[in-house]
């Protein structure tokens, strides 16, 4: 191991064969690996469909429709990226609870107080950011371990969300009308209809997140703090403020997801983000699959988005392959768990073998 | 050379720090729980009844029991969020065996513990040899174990489970001297674990692993073996807790155990165990579980909305960890 490390990288690259190079790129360039897997998944289900094993065609139209369920998880996975990259055990278990509570706030603004749409959306996102700021203050300034702080706020926020309207959803006519936010947009054939919020919410948010993470001074500071906070502090980075902002970004994105879920359900449900295993777990899974290292300092927005797409289309395919009752969603659990553990193992192998991970 | 010689000479004369039988956090917790009990028995006339106290102890038992293993895991700087799904797997297997094959009490408990051990061992091996962060491993196995349990369930829940496990259940059979046997079981195991972690060499090694795994390895601690043992122990505890949860039988639903992990971790953390590892006791965990159980019961008795209990649990976590952080900061500033 140590012998390899003394050889310069360039020299190593020249000495390796094609197979070794392909392996290295597949292991260290997570986006490449995920893109290959994505193609494999789509082709696999197409073949299954051609062989008559699926109950409905796994075609372009179906894949376009499936994007609807991708939006919340892609956004929350990007939210987890901010927090996990910020280091020191950064993790946000409370995103699902924020989605619930901000969604209820949104429901009250639109459905009860009858605010116009735009101020309500802004209000919902602000509520999300404020809830994230509470997490951030606890973790960055009071120095709670992130797991504990967000576990506590998970409880607190979900409790408040459930109490806020006596455990009942808000589905007054103005809230039901919000469903138009998530309607399908039709394109000329052969393009499939695609949910509107993929364009109005997911893509702009992803682009903004990419700019912030990869093209701004804050982004550089985030990676510096996440990689080594002592070194970052000596390099005049404000460690606490960088971490605080990461949690605010996570809350803000959760607020955006709250708008989306209220639109999708046509109702502000107090348990939207916490029912079952909640939204935090799948989000963390997608982030890790997308190449975010749990130790902090490593991870890219592009990888997370491709991972979200992969999980979405894999899940959509399994719903067609296992149509009986809840069997499809059951196999989704298995796939999610296996994919998470295997991708983490892959991260370990890549780090041990090449000492880096993109 | 000279400096080492002087410290070595000075060491025997220095007074050894006294080993305290009980930590400050635990005293505080006993105070809070005691205060709550006094206030609740004054405010409501239903709290201080045998039935209610038995009920609190019975509902707390599985959480405290899993907390025993979870304390060991968190002390080694790990975490296990898959306990809820583990419980689901054990419960469905045991419930089916008891109902369809008429398995008697002791074999049923043995099967539960063995299944728990296996599930825990998978977690332990992945953490120790896979080089994966424990939270990622157990998030993964949380999903996988849930799949396994649903697969065994088939299409429907398990109904009509006979009361084979009633001796540790919540009914009249499950009482010994007026206290639920489940609680006696928890107390005995907690006492055993407390002694193990305090007086046994390998028990002390758990703290060493959590404090600094690298230094522990250099000092001759078998780090991987200790990590695996903590997860395996948690699995065994989950097995026992699952038997308590099946108890006097009846219905085992497909969503059993969801959210259990968070309640257990909350109890452990409120009990003063540091999530960073290297510090914590089983006594604190049992007290933390009692506090959580008392609060949940109080919210019901005061006829407040039951969701309010979660808010209090969240606040208790913040207060418990916040006080601990302040003490730690004062200690390091000194």
From TrEMBL, chain A:
Q: Tell me what topology the record assigns in the membrane.
A: Multi-pass membrane protein
Q: What is its main location?
A: membrane
* Residue ranges crossing the lipid bilayer per the database entry: 31-56, 62-86, 93-113, 119-142, 154-176, 196-213, 244-266, 272-294, 301-321, 333-351
The record ties this protein, via Pfam families, to:
BPD_transp_2
- Keywords, sorted A to Z: Cell inner membrane, Cell membrane, Membrane, Transmembrane, Transmembrane helix, Transport
Where in or outside the cell?
Cell membrane
What protein am I looking at? Serine protease
From TrEMBL, chain B:
Q: Which domain of life is it from?
A: Bacteria
This one is known as ABC transporter permease
Keywords per UniProt:
Cell membrane, Membrane, Transmembrane, Transmembrane helix
Record's keyword annotation contains Ribosomal protein? no
Membrane among keywords: yes
Locations listed in the record = Cell membrane
Q: Which InterPro entries match?
A: ABC_transp_permease (IPR001851)
Task: List the CDD domains hit by this protein, alphabetically.
Answer: TM_PBP1_transp_AraH_like
Membrane-spanning residues: 27-48, 55-75, 81-98, 105-132, 182-201, 230-252, 258-276, 283-302, 308-326
**Organism name:** Pseudonocardia zijingensis
Name a Pfam family for this protein. BPD_transp_2
What membrane topology is annotated for this entry? Multi-pass membrane protein
């Amino acid at each position: 191991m140590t012998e390899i490390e003394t050889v310069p990288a360039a020299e190593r690259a020249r000495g390796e064969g094609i197979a070794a190079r392909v392996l290295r790129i597949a292991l260290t360039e997570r986006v490449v690996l995920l893109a290959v897997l994505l193609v494999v998944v789509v082709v696999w289900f197409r073949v299954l469909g051609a062989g008559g094993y699926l109950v409905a065609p796994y075609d372009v139209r179906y894949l376009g429709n499936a994007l609807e369920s991708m939006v919340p998880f892609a956004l929350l996975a990007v939210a987890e990226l901010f927090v996990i990259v910020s280091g020191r055990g950064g993790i946000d278990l409370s995103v699902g609870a924020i989605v619930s509570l901000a969604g209820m706030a949104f429901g009250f603004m639109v459905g009860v107080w009858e605010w116009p749409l735009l101020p309500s959306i802004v209000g919902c996102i602000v509520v999300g950011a404020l809830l994230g700021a509470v997490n951030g203050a606890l973790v960055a300034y009071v120095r709670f371990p992130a797991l504990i702080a967000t576990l506590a706020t998970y409880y607190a926020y979900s409790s408040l969300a459930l109490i806020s309207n006596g455990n009942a959803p808000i589905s007054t006519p103005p809230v039901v009308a919000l469903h138009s936010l998530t309607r399908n947009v039709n394109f000329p054939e052969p393009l499939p209809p695609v949910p509107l919020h993929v364009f109005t919410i997911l893509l702009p948010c992803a682009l903004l997140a990419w700019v912030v993470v990869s093209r701004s001074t804050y982004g550089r500071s985030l990676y510096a703090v996440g990689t080594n906070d002592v070194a970052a502090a000596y390099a005049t980075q404000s460690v606490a403020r960088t971490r605080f902002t990461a949690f605010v970004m996570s809350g803000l994105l959760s607020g955006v997801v709250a708008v989306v879920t209220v639109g999708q359900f046509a109702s502000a449900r107090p348990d939207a983000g916490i029912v079952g295993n909640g939204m935090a777990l799948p989000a963390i899974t997608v982030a890790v699959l997308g190449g975010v290292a749990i130790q902090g300092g490593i991870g890219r927005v592009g990888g997370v988005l491709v991972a979200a797409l992969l999980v979405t289309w894999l899940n959509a395919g399994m719903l067609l392959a296992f149509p009986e009752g809840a069997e499809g969603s059951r196999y989704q659990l298995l796939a999610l768990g296996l994919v998470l553990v295997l991708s983490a193992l892959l991260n370990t192998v890549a780090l041990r073998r090449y000492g880096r991970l993109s | 050379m000279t400096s080492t010689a002087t410290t070595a000479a000075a060491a025997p004369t220095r007074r050894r720090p006294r080993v305290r039988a009980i930590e400050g956090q635990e005293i505080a917790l006993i105070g809070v729980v005691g205060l709550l009990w006094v206030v609740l028995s004054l405010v409501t006339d239903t709290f201080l009844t045998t039935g209610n106290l038995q009920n609190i102890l019975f509902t707390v038992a599985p959480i405290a029991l899993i907390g025993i293993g979870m304390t060991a895991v968190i002390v080694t700087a790990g975490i296990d969020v898959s306990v809820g799904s583990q419980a689901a797997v054990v419960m469905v297997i045991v419930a089916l065996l008891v109902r369809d094959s008429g398995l008697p009490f002791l074999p049923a408990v043995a099967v539960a513990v063995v299944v728990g051990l296996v599930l825990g061992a998978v977690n332990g091996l992945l953490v120790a040899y896979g080089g994966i962060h424990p939270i990622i491993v157990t998030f993964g196995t949380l999903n996988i174990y849930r799949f396994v349990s649903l697969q065994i369930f088939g299409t429907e829940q398990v109904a009509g489970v006979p009361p084979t496990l009633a001796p540790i259940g919540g009914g009249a059979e499950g009482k010994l001297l007026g206290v639920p046997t489940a609680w006696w079981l928890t107390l005995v195991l907690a006492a055993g674990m407390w002694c193990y972690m305090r007086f046994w060499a390998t028990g002390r090694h758990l703290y060493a692993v959590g404090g600094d795994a690298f230094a522990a390895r250099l000092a001759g601690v078998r780090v991987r073996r200790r990590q695996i043992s903590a997860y395996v122990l948690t699995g065994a505890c989950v097995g026992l807790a699952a038997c308590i949860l099946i108890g006097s039988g009846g219905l085992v639903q497909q969503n059993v155990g969801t959210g259990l992990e968070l309640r257990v971790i909350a109890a452990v953390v409120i009990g003063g165990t540091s999530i960073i590892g290297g510090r914590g006791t089983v006594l604190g965990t049992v007290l933390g579980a009692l506090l959580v159980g008392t609060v949940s019961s109080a919210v019901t008795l005061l006829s407040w909305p039951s969701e309010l209990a979660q808010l209090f649990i969240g606040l208790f976590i913040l207060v418990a960890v916040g006080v601990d952080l302040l003490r730690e900061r004062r200690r390091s500033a000194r």
